[in-house]
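Moderator note: this is an archived Q&A kept for reference. The question asked for a predicted structure of one protein chain; the sequence and the answer are reproduced below.
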Amino acid sequence: MALEGTLRDFSLADIFQLIGLQRKTGVLTLRAPEDVVTVSFLDGKVVGADSLNKRLEDRLGQVLLKTGAVTQEELDAALRLQMETLERMGHILLRSAIISREELRRALEQQVLQIIYRVFRWNDGDYHFSQETSIDYDAELITPMGAESILMEGARMLDEWPIIEKRIPNRGLVFIPDVAVGQLQVVRDSDLDEFHGLDHDEPAPKTAPLGRKSVTPVESDILKLLDGLSSVEDVIRMSAHGEFETCKALYTLLTRNIVREARPEEQATAQARAAALAEIAATSHPAGARLPWLALFLVPVLVISQLLAPRNPANPITGDGPKLPPRLHASLSAARMWGIWQSLQARAALVGSYPEALAELASERILADQELRDPWGRPYRYVLREASLVLYGSTRQGAPDPNLVLSRHLAASNEPLDTGPGASLIEP
């Protein structure tokens, strides 16, 4: 008997419970307008999950980056190697001794759980379970997870999400701390006498010295990301604690009046301050000011001569690295995509909706048809869904370029359109 139907008739919790109790092996496919998710089971336990429209925070490299296991430079180098060898990211980082086996195991588990917990919030969709005799998964790095423990955590999230969303109804909101750093004390979760759920409008009081407020390590991490510029969506993307834990910590901070929504003038001030700091960093060259005037001529000559040395692997003409023309074309394509992206946001702000196809920008004379194509003459791929907007670019060979992707999470249909900053460059 095939296990298939709709989530309105048979909830995801019921499906997980049935597969777990009967110790089934196979793949559960869940389809909804916003995404398609597959969950792999081995003897009733979860051993993998994947998403068609995988979010930035679900990508293994980003999970490792946010937890501090890798640096941006290490991740970029691994991505370049992955494009050459098509090897799995985890194995590249492990073989290079950049991360430990335990760090990779934790990141893979977090990646799987983030995908599954997001499906628990679906109100509708279709499901189909394909029973198999065996499942291909990395047994050395993946520890099978019992469906029961996932169900308990998923049920807790379902209960608490509506309460959180009452205080945070829009992911475009920007918050700032409302308490000085010196008035806060970071304590361990086990030292706090508080409710673990959100069943009450006000959390239980936390024990702290007179005049100071206690915060958990997670809440402390979230506070550091509230700069008056980053929206809730940005904070979720930067946080190392996952979507639910980040939003729950932000809810608690709001309820206890430790943070508040930033006023427009405060956001403008923060933006001006960030722009000023960026300008200072770009224009200040204290080391160069002390160089003799002759070095202004000798240093460029020395650098060019070294780069063009025949045996130098960094030589953009004969070296082993990427050649100069592809770099220039990729940079040109990225700049052209950013122009399209800004035009899409401006059009949405004026008209109230995004175009169904990029060609509408040309027909409305917002951009020329040539500006909607990459340096090789191919049109950019544009995908508009109910909850997301994605713009894709390609390599010279026509394959999707993972470094040329712009994506934005859209507000729900009953929420006002957020016309503020929301685009982010997605790395695979």
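Archived answer notes: The longest strand covers residues 400-409.
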